[in-house]
Amino acid sequence: CENQSFTRRFWKKDAKKENWHFYLLLNRRVGTIPPDLQMQIQALPLTQLEELGEALLDFSELEDLVAWLQT
Question: What is the pTM (predicted TM-score) of this model?
Answer without folding.
Answer: 0.71
